[in-house]
């Protein structure tokens, strides 16, 4: 009789343990966010802008081209077509006057050899960079510093200073003050200095700024089709308008094998 009673007690204990296990509510590893996923990583200032322009879709494309009509002081500075791989490893500028500039990933070439060479390296690197800037903010070698809130046309924008580690690009001493749109997180403007033809200290005496507008979507990628250029300083912000550019005929494409190769009758442009 004692053995039977002892057996019943053991079975009762086991039964209670089993029921308790079945009724326990599991704790989700994501603290209830859903599907067991971890919380999304908070995006940085630069990542937020790249996501707003859909960098992922941009980088899925092999190359992109656009027509540019650039004017300063009412005079045409550049008119033609700019073509580039989406990672900026190769660039081509075909000017309306028949001059072609090619960066093949190693050297800059100009064709024909008789073409005016002044500003050739500046043209092939600068305008493609302004176009692709929303997708290049997290490139290797970029350095960021939060500058807080600055105003443009009475609207407050979050800003950060972009600079570069040594030996990055053609002008590593350049810096930019990036303005992020408060509602869309797109790139609104960038103040900058140009050290390609001047020492950094001298260039910092005359900074300028580019303002982006008239955004349109191409293959789900947001890109500005109007640029304006202004005087700028850290204390007063944007000053007089200096120039403007109209961007049209934006197209993604797959370049032929020789598209970014130096044509015949070309010459290397050195620094």
TrEMBL record:
It comes from the Bacteria. This is Heat-shock protein Hsp90. It comes from Christiangramia sediminicola.
